[in-house]
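Just scan this pair:

***
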Amino acid sequence: MLLERIKGAIGLIREGQPFKLGDLLITRQDKNTLSVTGWTQHLYLNQLTRSNAAEELVHIKQDFQKLVSSSSDWKDFLNDKTIQYNLDYDEFGKGIGICNEINGEIKWLIDLHP
């Protein structure tokens, strides 16, 4: 069942449609870049620090890697792709970008305490 859902997700993502798998939203930014978004567990942005956000970003990456390791279809699909990992804050259904990471480099989108 999960493998069929993964194949369906890959097909939709190839067509440019976003797809939610577990706690992750996966979208295609362009032909070579996928965006993997997760949301902070903090209820209030003023309680979030850079350290907390970086930890949550690590968890997003780990969750995505578990997903990828569960399917050779994912591995094949991602072969030539760059992955942008995003941590967002959900404010009444509207996502606020906190930070993102591409190739190990974190870009902060809002100002947080260290």
In short: The mean pLDDT is 91.
